[in-house]
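Board notes (copied after class):
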Amino acid sequence: MNLASPLPMFVDTAKSRNTVLTISELTRRIRGSVEQEFFNVWVLGELSNVKRPSSGHVYLTLKDAHAQLQAVIFKSVAHGLKFEIQDGLQVLAFGSVTVYEARGQYQLIVERMEPKGIGALQLAFLQLKERLEKEGLFDPAHKKPLPALPRKIAVVTSLTGAAIRDIVNVINRRFARVEILIYPVKVQGEGAALEIAQAISDLNTISNIDVMIVGRGGGSLEDLWAFNEEVVARSIFASRIPVVSAVGHEIDVTISDLVADKRALTPTEAGELVVPRYDQIMDACEKIKTRLVQALYNKILLMRSRLLRIEHSFSLKRPFDKVYRLQQDVDEIMQRLVTTGKHMVQLERERLAGIANRLDSISPLRVLSRGYSITTLVIDDKLIKSTEGLAAGNRLKTRFSHGSVVSSVVEVLE
């Protein structure tokens, strides 16, 4: 061994000891190393501490039982997420690890995120469904009835799809006399939801539309997604015109189906729901006409019978007989009143005579007629019942049955 030259290991150690790095330089080297090592990786974890500042970026923590990782979703990526990220949600995050030099903190820049165990669109559907249901957008109390016989029907769908042909054919076959107004829109892809919502809003400014069909033919969940967008749901809910949702096939249930006043399983069924069959309407009208004619005929017969009875009635032939009978009744009543009055007068007269006789029997005049007299003092007309109080010279007045005398007391005898 040549001890004259140092071992390579000792040379590197010596160089490292002689190199002094700034914090920024060291952090930048670590960042480069981390970004190269952990580029485009999938990370499984639970969302925690989700924050949404006004910048539009989303900051969060991915964690498991033993560790945690800071992550950020920039605004452009966050706006593209179909579901709502929230604490406690298990997700798969795709992105690259980098170092935020200002704090010397490594973090994951998220470019894609999928909920664990369920598709992003399905989760978004469930989250929006739960939120709108709590707001009452699916409440049957808000459902408007469809008109029985519309005159003008609006259809919001694509001009190139099979749905528009199915709807128009069914309506024309069942009731060709109705007017159809088609509002063409994109039914899938970027901007489709906004076009559908705008179409519903525009049609509500037209006064004579009776009912509206909104829909498209079948497709994948992604194809039908425009009808799961919140803007479409709120536009349908705000519509004053009854809305029939006809999206996809029977197994496809969208948010639009739940908000709409009526859900059609297919676009063809939507056409059947909004108009009745013309031949059935005519048949019903004929039956009603027959019943009305029969009812009117029966009414005429009844009235004729009643008039004939009146015509041949005794009252109509001798109309004054009833008046005469009433006058006879009045005369009889008057006679009874006169007789009753006379009887009562006689009873009162007899009663008064009895009272007069009783009064006459106790009258003082009757006593005087039997020879008695009444003596009173002249001075005060006081009745004299004994000699007590009398004295010679008192003037006395004595009343007889006929006439009176005034005398003077000469002597009082005991």
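Comment from the instructor: The two ends are 199 Å apart (CA to CA). Confidence is low (pLDDT under 50) at residues 1-11.
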